[in-house]
Amino acid sequence: MNQSTSTIAPSVIQAANSLKAGQLLAYPTESVWGIGCDPYNEAAVQRILAIKQRPEEKGMIVVTDSADRIAPLLASLDNAQRESILKSWQTDSDNVDLEYQQAHTWLLPVPQTIATTIPSWITGQHQTVAVRVIAHPLVRKLCEQLVSAHNPFGLLVSTSCNLSGQSPASTFSEAYIYFGEQISYLQAETLGYTLPSQIRDAKTGSVIR
Can you tell me the distance from the alpha carbon of 71 to that of 69, in angstroms, rounded to the nearest whole number? Predict the structure, then answer.
């Protein structure tokens, strides 16, 4: 493999700049590699959907760096619901027994008061948005760099880094074999979680995946 250094972001800031410029970025998550983009850039999202052969109606998972950042998305939940979500994200970040850890993504209802701040190509046909406060420290820094008037919640699209029907990349090398110089890369290791992220409904607590 003779990857071009031009496709490897040398810093989090430059990775963020590539996302802001509409590029796709592969990066490590808790368990496998993800591929993402600026969720507010429809053309970039459509490129990911095309790569994944994924219908827009399904919606997309997004990650951010802090629960406080997305407080408006948690506001419509009751205390018990919020507590479950915040506890799961805190557990994800405690980094204890990483081999048995599992990241938690939650389907959060989108209040009408902020509905226009979450693009329809992210929610798909749903009235919820799939969100995770990511435990990976490097990707947290990346999300922090994405915060702006354009992206107030510091959101980053996060879908598994693979071609349709193939296994998700678990290393940089595997990600590069899939996509080569078509996209950019933030090179680092995953956190080593062996279980895929769990998706749950914030209102009911039921496990979707």
Answer: 6
DSSP string, 35-57: EE--TT-HHHHHHHHHHHT--GG
Tokens of 206: 């039921």
Which pair of tokens denotes residue 33? Answer: 């590699």
| Domains of the chain, start order | 5-201 (3.90.870.10)
Counting DSSP H helices and E strands in the chain, the numbers are 7, 9
Which residue's structure tokens are 């933030």? Answer: 186
Structure tokens belonging to residue 93: 């970040």
Helical ranges in the chain per DSSP H: 12-20, 42-52, 71-74, 79-94, 120-123, 137-146, 172-179
Tokens of residue 80, six digits: 């018990």
What are 50-59's pLDDT values in tens digits?
988 889 999 9
Lookup result for tokens 């496990």: 207
Look up the pTM and report it. Answer: 0.93
pLDDT (tens digit, 9 = 90+) per residue, 107-161? Answer: 999 988 888 899 999 999 999 999 999 999 999 999 999 999 999 999 999 999 9
